[in-house]
Amino acid sequence: MYMSEDEDLRIAGIEQESFVDGPGIRFVVFTQGCSHHCPECHNPETHAFGKGQVETADSLLKMVDANPLLSGVTLSGGDPMEQAVQLLPFVLGVKMRRLHLVVFTGYRYEMLMSKFAHPAMKELLTYTDILIDGPYLKDLRDLSLTFRGSSNQRIIDVPKSIVEGKVVLHEIQLKEMEGNLDGSFS
């Protein structure tokens, strides 16, 4: 598992009001750097480490504070887990504001909870409400899915998963699966 050694938080961009990157109105931070390099990735410009712009937790939190309508914050990328150390001060500020946190990652939940994961990745996970996990797989592309690009990706209820010691799918995905008549989900 890769962890950026850069001391600075590097981002590729910000979306101040998104309705497609999690439930409600979201402040979205697109991190810079991703080791997965998924073929036909939606954000290939975010792959290179050391590029993008440097941001601080304080500057991002000021932007969050400027919008009282936000339901929460989404970390996308790139892969936010590969900058977990740099993101933790921002994430702590988000949680102090009692905002909901969604994290997109190419890693699987099980890998993030394993002994191989960097401690900061596990810590970031403990503050996460919803995790969208797994790499984008172009052969499993499905634009009808909520918040995901391919059917191998899961919407995980992280607090319930931690308590139960296993992956618990979020009600968003469970409702989506109920609506699928042929029952074919990965």
What does this structure look like?
α1 packs parallel to α2 and α2 (84-96) packs parallel to α4. The longest helix is centred in the middle third of the chain and has 13 residues, at 84-96. Mean pLDDT is 91; it is low at 181-186. It is globular, with a radius of gyration of 16 Å. It is built from 6 helices and 7 strands. Strands 3-1-2-4-5-6-7 form a 7-stranded mixed sheet. The chain starts with 8 loop residues before the first strand and ends in an 8-residue tail after the last helix. It is α/β, with parallel strands linked by helices and 186 residues long.
Key terms:
186 residues, alpha/beta, TIM Barrel, seven-stranded mixed sheet, disordered C terminus
User: Mean pLDDT, as a whole number?
Assistant: 91
- CATH C-level class is Alpha Beta
Structure summary, number of beta strands: 7
| Through-space gap between termini | 24 Å
Please state the second-level CATH architecture. Alpha-Beta Barrel
Strand order of the largest sheet: 3-1-2-4-5-6-7
Low-confidence regions: 181-186
Biggest sheet, in brief? Answer: 7 strands, mixed
SS class: alpha/beta
Question: Strand-residue fraction?
Answer: 15-25%
The residue fraction in helices comes out at 25-40%
Could you tell me the radius of gyration in angstroms? 16 Å
Q: How does the overall form come out from the CA principal axes?
A: globular
Q: Helix-strand pattern, N to C?
A: EEEHEHEHHEEHH
CATH topology: TIM Barrel
Count up the helices. Answer: 6
CATH H-level name... which superfamily?
A: Aldolase class I
Q: State the domain count.
A: 1
